[in-house]
Design brief:
With 336 residues, the chain is an all-alpha fold. Helices cover 82% and strands 0% of the residues.
Length: 336
């Protein structure tokens, strides 16, 4: 019995795992750790279990037939649950660039598809191998792909802000639901739909990875120079004569002298850590694995203490110099 179940298991699960592995492998900056990928896969599996319960409730309470549930209710329920995982990580500034958005999204969909296919392997044991080819290369990849679509779209539309913009989430969510629904309508034969996914999705993924790497490279070059210039100015002893120094001096009218000193210390530590994070990414791009320096956690703790001393008003006052976009907040998480 076990020997008979191995080929269907292999075909049902391997494609989506291999595709996700390819995304992680081709990310030369290694923006998402393997541990984080595994956590997201498990979260996606929980989404599958939750959707099973909610789909059952929708069928009973709305009187839906199986085709209606599959075409209309299930895509909404399943994509909403998977989207919640992505929204959580976006809100915590854990996603900095398109490629890690794609990895997060595809990992959620992979976890969902793995649990779903394990369930169907039990329910439809003994089915024709063509069923598992469609489920493994078609439906499973579809689940990963539509979640990646939502993640990349939501990140792209909200990436310039330091907080989640609800309206920025809607286009990606609607696109994911629509794509899922169209797939479940079976306008094309299952085999033909599977072939289309196999052909189109790798091309889209390759484009996202290449474009994201260009984006990372440009951001590193521009941001590194600006951070280094400001840090050098702070340490040079001529900071008070600069525009930034004069602006901070003007804050003495609104904050105590101790608070202004804390603001300056916070600004210096932020730029030091920012340069360290960018240095790590540059080393990774060239194939070097970099260990986090032991004092980084102490510096992060000091920054958090300074942040509390400064307060929200003080943080708002220096926000233009910190450039707290999603990418800039993400780089601090990289060191954490």
């Amino acid at each position: 019995m076990l020997s008979q179940s191995i080929p269907p298991l292999f075909v049902a699960l391997l494609p989506v795992v291999a595709f996700l592995g390819g995304l992680v492998y081709f990310d030369s900056y290694k923006l998402v750790s393997l541990r984080r990928v595994l956590v997201i896969i498990m979260a996606g599996g929980l989404c599958c279990a939750g959707s099973y319960l909610l789909n059952g409730l929708a069928r009973e309470n709305l009187g839906l037939t199986t085709p209606a549930l599959s075409r209309y209710a299930a895509p909404v329920i399943e994509e909403l649950l998977k989207a919640l995982i992505i929204i959580y990580f976006l809100s915590r500034n854990r996603i900095g660039f398109m490629v890690d958005a794609a990895i997060y999204g595809f990992a959620v969909g992979s976890g969902f598809a793995i649990i779903e296919n394990l369930y169907y392997l039990q329910v439809y044991a003994g089915s024709n191998m063509a069923v598992w080819v469609v489920r493994g290369f078609g439906t499973a990849i579809m689940h990963g792909g539509v979640s990646a679509i939502f993640a990349v779209t939501a990140h792209s539309l909200s990436g310039t802000h330091d907080k989640i913009q609800p309206l920025a989430l809607l286009p990606g969510l609607l696109l994911a639901i629509l794509t899922h629904s169209v797939y479940n309508h079976f306008f094309l034969t299952p085999i033909f739909s599977t072939l289309l996914i196999i052909i189109i999705l790798p091309v889209v993924a390759y484009t996202v990875v290449r474009q994201s790497e260009q984006q990372v490279s440009q951001w590193l070059g521009l941001s590194f120079d600006k951070d280094a210039e400001l840090l050098e100015l702070i340490n040079s002893g001529k900071f008070s004569n600069s525009n930034v120094g004069q602006y901070l001096h003007s804050l003495c009218e609104y904050f105590s002298g101790e608070t202004v000193v804390d603001i300056l210390c916070y600004l210096r530590l932020h730029k030091e850590l920012s340069l360290r994070a960018k240095g790590m990414l540059m080393m990774r791009e060239n194939g070097f694995e970099v260990e986090i320096e032991p004092d980084v956690h102490e510096v992060l703790a000091e920054m958090k203490a300074l942040q509390e001393n400064i307060g929200k008003t003080g943080q708002a006052a220096i926000k233009p110099f910190l450039r707290l976009s999603r990418k800039d907040l993400w780089q601090i998480y990289l060191l954490e």
